[in-house]
Amino acid sequence: RIALEAQRMSGLVDDMLRLARLDQHPGQQDDPVDLTALVQEGAERARITDPQREWQPHIAAGLVAVGDEELLRRSIDNLLGNISAHTPAGTVATITAAERGSTVIVEVSDNGPGVPAGQLPHIFDRFYRGTAPAGRPGSGLGLAIVTAIAAAHEGTAEAALNDPHGLRITLTLPACSQPLAEPRAASITPSPHANPGMP
Q1: In this structure, what are the phi and psi dihedrals at residue 100, rounded to the nearest 5 degrees?
Q2: pLDDT confidence of residue 15
């Protein structure tokens, strides 16, 4: 128990430091990032580390954004980890990624219990913590980090109730005007943030 609490506190400190850096230095790298591979990797990690849920990826090819690859990877991991932490076993999670006009849209939705409509505007607030039926309460910073990373990349993060039930979070990022010369193959190497702190 002490080891688990120490790990949780370490994750909390890491999240707070990450938010502090984003607050102080919102400008990020402007490298082309292969979002197709990034989202595929995140979905595969989720499938391997959390087989109690059904992960359904629908990811278009050739998606490229401009920014910081590590931060964008963290935002995807946080979105998927939010489902693991706040939905019961057997939940179906859908991950879609596609280009729309000059933006790349990454949408993560589930058919879990969702959140009360009145609490929906607060799920991106720092230290907001919903219920965690999976028994893994987080720090309340996971989705706050997602929206901070989106803002640092001149994008947005929005939440809505899923139909007929569940939660849908949409991450919108500016698309890169030029495709990558050599898109990299997706890897399933476990991320150091595969189990991030969640709200």
Answers
A1: -130, 105
A2: 62
